[in-house]
Write a structure and sequence with these properties.
It is built from 34 helices and 18 strands. The strands form 5 sheets. The chain has a 6-stranded mixed beta sheet with strand order 3-2-1-4-5-6. Strands 7-10-9-8-11-12 form a 6-stranded mixed beta sheet, sandwiched between helices. The chain is α/β, with parallel strands linked by helices.
Length: 824
């Protein structure tokens, strides 16, 4: 690459769209009204990053039209193995076209040829020019174009510094220089394009032949010198090789109505791009637009609302503020604290807002403070005023993640705190599949406000300070913005929750639950740490014994936690069956070891080792470190906004995943004991709650009758499906029925049922058919639910909680079936 030459970047647009789509597949991006936008976001983000990083002089994007080309006419099976675009990608194509147009980027496509041919034509046109060209793609076909004036930019590396593929890199990757890539493709073929090549000739063999005989023609001129089966293959498949060479040859004479000057980079249509980004909810990309736009005239700048944020530092102002707040209909509040531990943190200040774009900050601690501002004890005085304000029943009190603020207030003596609305919970109910519910993220998404990051004030890493060390002037704007934004979001979310039928769920379930979880977190659980210490010692000894047994079975010492070394022991030294392959090699995960333990004792001992090691590190050794010094108890955090289904989750520690089915898991649970003599722990559980809910939802007569008669539901199912009396049900029949009751209703198919019950696929399918034949109501409920989800693109609970399912109609069976299971 020459620093003196101007630079042209040509994007393989179609490849970028598909790359973006599959990169976002695990966490699909969907607008609040259910439109898939992951491919668009990935495409636009990559283009903007490329423009920002490389700042090219010329820029263009080339797309495939998607219709048959001259290659299809020449070879009917050309690209015959290509699947049609996924259903949720198709509507994103026109959006990408619109946004590319608004970004003022030259776009080229042509019926009858492919994007690669257009790129090749540009490459030919610019040979010998003073412009250095980069083709942004990872397509090996395009490597034949690389020369002293053109390189490729590997698309797979676009998230980081680009991988530049010049002539030397082509030879390292392909084994031949760029002018022999076409010959290489002719011999080896290309499975992605269904180009046949020569049967049995792979890339290494093809490269070796070309190195030895110089060219495609040279290989066939000396074909009799080729040894072994390759000679026969080359002779038999010569016509296929010639066809493959023809198909892989890129056209360099496509008629283009463009010259180099037409590729000059131009400023974007900022207003249109921003409007599209707002519609697509790409709020994080909006600030980047201005980097690529000519300076906006003063009269074109948007009129941003004036922020009226004030500090309260005198007693008259404080009293006046609270008098005005008492007359408000809604008050948003936010605490600034020294840490995120509600049990030990100190209150630095309190921000309140009762009107849009307005806020007040009451400082309690700041570097410049010299004596008390309001009374003998500022904190006690201000908190008493706040508690009195909470007593005004006609005011709605709102904020973001108020469980934390309320916990802090409670630990500082405020018992009558209020949390009538919570923007984090509201945002979660409106979009349970969102990646984050941080205030800054939801403010950007719904209000298009880019908030000031806390790191701007306190820094991060070694240089991080606590909020009480932030200057008062900086603290005022930051804290007031938090309260103001929460107020604005509340006003918006109140309407959205009502429009979506979610207000009853929010008001009757989620908000009351906030106070319950707060109390659970505050109380915590007492741990017998000495008991855990004794378990840890036992586990340590067991692990040491297991390690030695593993070494003995392996015949050598090795790093048991190294997948690479374990793979060598299992599959090379012991020659055990290779059951599952991953990107990095053969798998040694729990499913593989579980199957291999019946063949050799080493996998069995490895499973025991992993189980004990996980229990020891995750629970036994970790729990004592989480005991709070102030309370001598463990205080987990219970989250309402983590799972898309509405199920609670807990962290630091996660109490919900302590095993109960294993002996060691049950032993760990014994560490939770009453803190004082005479206290008891009460354990309560629902009786078959999921099946009772299914009975209500499906109104299945057999299921309802079983509950009404007080029957053992699994035994009743076994009797019904097996056409026998209840007293004739065997333990094995009941076990099968139990698996069926908890599996079939959730959409488990014959494959899963067969693996769980140890029966053939045919037997499992017969059982499923018989199950639905007897439980007709459940079958009808499942079918009805899936049909409704396909129509609405979401499923909802009795209380109105929604789970959006944009992939419920996907062409891909596995993707569609997964969405159907989510619906049920």
């Amino acid at each position: 690459m020459s620093d003196k030459k101007k630079q042209l970047f040509l994007i393989d647009g179609t490849a970028l769209i598909y790359r973006s789509y599959y990169a976002m597949m695990r966490n699909p991006l969907i607008t609040s009204d259910g439109r898939p936008t992951g491919a668009v976001f990935g495409f636009v983000s990559t283009v903007l990053s490329l423009l920002e990083r490389e700042n090219p002089d010329y820029f263009a994007i080339v797309f495939d039209v998607g219709k048959p080309t001259f290659r299809h006419e020449r070879y009917e099976l050309y690209k015959a193995n290509r699947k049609p675009p996924p259903d949720d990608l198709i509507p994103q194509f026109p959006i990408i076209e619109d946004v590319t147009k608004a970004m003022n980027i030259p776009v080229f496509s042509q019926v009858g040829v492919e994007a690669d041919d257009i790129l090749a034509t540009f490459a030919e046109m610019l040979k010998g020019s003073d412009v250095y060209t980069f083709i942004v793609s990872s397509d090996k076909d395009l490597m034949q174009l690389v020369n002293e004036n053109l390189s490729m930019c590997n698309l797979r590396k676009m998230g980081m510094a680009s991988e530049i593929i010049d002539s030397r890199a082509v030879e390292e990757k392909m084994g031949v220089p760029p002018d022999r890539v076409l010959d290489l493709l002719a011999l080896m073929g290309d499975s992605s394009d269904n180009i046949p090549g020569v049967r049995g000739i792979g890339p290494k063999t093809a490269a070796k032949l070309l190195q030895e005989y110089g060219s495609f023609e040279g290989v066939f001129e000396h074909v009799e010198e080729v040894k072994g089966k390759n000679r026969e293959r080359l002779i038999e498949d010569k016509e296929k090789a010639e066809l493959s060479r023809e198909l892989a040859t890129l056209k360099t004479d496509v008629e283009l109505s463009a010259e180099l000057k037409d590729l000059i980079r131009k400023p974007m249509d900022a207003q249109t791009v921003e409007a599209i980004f707002r519609d697509l909810e790409f709020f994080s990309l909006i600030p980047k637009i201005q980097q690529f736009v000519e300076q906006i005239k003063e009269n074109e700048k948007p009129n941003l609302p004036k922020k009226d944020y004030e500090k309260i530092i005198t007693l008259p102002d404080l009293e006046n503020l609270f008098e005005r707040l008492k007359k408000s209909k809604i008050v948003s509040y936010d605490l600034e604290t020294t840490s995120l531990d509600p049990l030990t943190t100190e209150i630095v200040g309190i921000a309140v807002s009762a009107k849009q774009n307005s806020g007040f900050y009451i400082p309690l601690k700041f570097p410049e403070k010299d004596g008390e501002l309001f009374a003998e004890n500022d904190q006690k005085f201000v908190l008493k005023l706040l508690e009195d304000l909470f007593g005004q029943r006609d005011i709605i009190f709102t904020g973001q993640n108020l469980k934390f603020d309320c916990a802090v207030l409670k630990n500082h003596g405020v018992n009558n705190f209020r949390a009538d609305f919570d923007t984090m919970i509201a945002a979660y109910l409106l979009d349970p599949g969102a990646r984050s519910y941080k205030l800054a993220n939801i403010a950007l998404r719904y209000l298009h406000i880019e908030m000031q990051p806390i790191e701007d004030l306190i820094g991060k890493g070694k240089n991080e300070i606590s909020f009480d060390q932030v200057s008062l002037s900086d603290a005022v704007n930051y804290a007031c913005e938090d309260a103001d934004v929460a107020l604005q979001l509340t006003m918006m979310f109140q309407k959205s929750l009502e429009e979506n039928g979610l207000l009853p769920l929010f008001e009757k379930v989620e908000i009351p639950l906030l106070s319950v979880l707060l109390e659970m977190e505050q109380i915590g659980l007492f741990l017998d740490t000495k008991f855990l210490e004794s378990i840890s010692n036992k586990m340590g000894k067991s692990l040491a014994e297991l390690i030695q047994k593993i070494y003995d079975l392996a015949g050598e010492e090795f790093n048991i936690n190294s997948t690479k070394q374990l793979r060598e022991i299992l599959f090379e030294k012991l020659d055990l069956p290779k059951l599952k392959r991953t990107k990095t090699g053969y798998s040694t995960d729990v499913t593989v070891l579980t199957q291999l333990q019946h063949i050799h004792d080493l996998p069995k001992k490895l499973l025991e080792y992993r189980e004990i090691q996980k229990l020891k590190s995750t629970y036994v050794d970790a729990f004592p470190k989480l005991v709070h010094s102030k309370t001598e108890r463990v205080h987990s955090s219970f989250n309402q906004t983590i799972t898309a289904t509405g199920r609670l989750s807990s962290i630091n520690p996660n109490f919900q995943n302590i095993p109960i089915r294993t002996k060691m898991g049950r032993e760990i649970r014994k560490a939770f004991v009453p803190q004082k003599n005479g206290w008891k722990i009460l354990s309560a559980d629902y009786s078959q709650v999921e099946l009772r809910i299914m009975a209500e939802l499906s109104q299945d007569e057999h299921l309802i009758a079983s509950f009404q008669n007080g029957e053992d539901i699994h035994a009743a199912t076994a009797a019904l499906v097996n056409n026998c009396k209840s007293d004739e049900v065997t333990p094995e029949m009941r076990r099968t029925a139990k698996v069926a009751n908890f599996g079939i209703m959730y959409g488990a198919g014959a494959f899963r049922m067969s693996s769980e019950l140890g029966m053939t696929m045919k037997e499992a399918q017969i059982f499923i058919d018989e199950y639905f034949e007897k439980y007709v109501g459940i079958k009808q409920y499942v079918e009805r639910t899936i049909a409704e989800a396909r129509d609405k693109k979401y499923a909802s609970t009795l209380l109105g909680r929604k789970r959006y399912l944009p992939q419920i109609n996907d062409r891909n069976f596995n993707v569609r079936q997964s969405a159907e299971r989510m619906a049920i």
